[in-house]
Design a protein that fits this description.
The complex is a heterodimer of chains A (268) and B (262).
Chain A: H1 4-39, H2 49-59, H3 64-86, H4 95-133, H5 136-142, H6 147-184, H7 190-200, H8 203-229, H9 235-267
Helix pairs in contact in A: 1-6, 2-6, 3-4, 3-6, 4-6, 4-7, 4-8, 4-9, 6-8, 8-9
Chain B: E1 4-15, E2 18-29, E3 33-37, H1 44-51, E4 59-64, E5 67-68, H2 74-81, E6 84-87, H3 99-110, H4 115-128, H5 144-155, E7 162-166, H6 174-191, E8 194-199, H7 202-208, E9 211-216, E10 219-225, H8 226-231, H9 235-241, H10 252-260
Parallel strand pairs in B: 3-8, 3-9, 6-7, 7-8
Antiparallel strand pairs in B: 1-2, 1-4, 4-5, 9-10
Chain lengths: 268, 262
Amino acid sequence: MPSIAENFFAGIGRRVIPLKRNVHDAAKVINDTFYWAFISPFKGKSIRVKAGIFEMVKAGYNSVPIVSVISFFVGIILALQAAYQLKKVGALIYVANLVGVSITRELGPILTAIIVSGRSGSAFAAEIGSMKAAEEVDALVTMGINPVRFLVVPKLIALMIMLPALTVIADFVGIAGGFVLSTTALEIHPYNYFQQTVNALLVKDIFTGLMKAWVFGIVITIVGAYQGFKVEGGAEEVGRRTTASVVASIFLVIIFDLFFTMLFYYFT
Amino acid sequence: MSDNAIDVIGLQTHYGAREILKKIDVGIPRGKTTVVLGGSGCGKSTFLKHLIGLLKPTRGEILFDGKNIAGLNENELNEVRKRMGVLFQGAALLNSMTIADNVALPLREHTKLNDSTIGIMVRMKLDLVGLSGFDNFYPSQLSGGMKKRAGLARAIALDPELLFFDEPSAGLDPLTAAGLDELILKLNKVFRMTIVVVTHELPSVFMIADYVIMLDLGNVIFAGPLEDLKKSENPKIRSFLERKPEQDTYSPDDYFRVIAGD
């Protein structure tokens, strides 16, 4: 019988040793992705531009309706919640500031990232995972084609461009939502609301939001790719990894959001 | 230049702590069709994955043209891979692309040919495997046998010296499987390709094999020409060829130990 101490250390080992492998695999995906996206194009191995555009349409263009609808509603909700407090002090006009700043700095990027990780991050994991299960990834390797360059880099380029683009749309539509509610239900004059928003917003508010969106795009792609490449078995594992990729990418998006928000708060 | 296309020296490999291949020493003769034979779980697919550089062995060398595949870096390995073609068990066509694009993929990635030349080469390869006119079909629109033929067209797109097949007749009816075997024979006789086929289908073995390597529990139990295999007296080979199930190897004491769980 092993002693209690032996069991204790064996328990730690059982948890930590697989973790080491996961860290190694994640580091490999990150390293390969950045190498094939940013370094190899300068060594004559071009990026698959056509596939990138195709991914942009799938992940970006097709997300425009859902991103617009959600950010419009969030704009309305935000205006209502702000009015609930601000009307007590007779400062209803500050609804415009609150909606404008919180949408551009925070809600625009994060809502877009959550929608895209649900739509595209999961799709990336499912696509790569089912290709792994069907030996298609092995086939690429035996053809001398690096699977990360072939599959992940177009997706990375697509999200690095489309996530900020979608965020711009979310910003506009979200502010429009607040505008519609304020000018109708709250009876603020449209011109006053517009002026108030323009005065409240700084270029850095929008810029920091877009910067976050760009990082979220990278996070979502890498999490999706990592989970996809981890598939070893069949269809069941593809499903499990897809779910895991959504949970992990939303979690990481929030972590990175926290980090960047703190960074921008203290250093801009 | 030796007579062997590939020399395997002391190949040993593990999945985790489990030993899969135990010190394998064989050669794959050049210009011939070699069949790697063995029951399920004997390590023949693992062996194949080592030959094509998908897995790295724990120990041992795999010499292709005097270079050890197991010791090459990614770029060097890719150069070697351009001279090899592989047909996977499920054909492994990319489902998001048409058949023509699948076959064109290695050409687009590794050559600087223009699109019209690639188009001609793709149609030549598809014609060779009997799939003319299916250029714009997607893999999901093809039957199992046709997918394998399309996968084969892709495997031979770069005119490889070496061609590997992983269970080519798995999941196919006898007629389609025989058609695929004919194709393998043709590629070997007409194009002088060195072919390695991993299978456990006896009819295929007798039809296509020049040379046979038989694995059992990670060991090579036979390596030689097909005629010698037929004459072999080794009981394991005999029972495999005569399709007799393996004898119960448990003694009553062993069995008791197994069910008692220690």
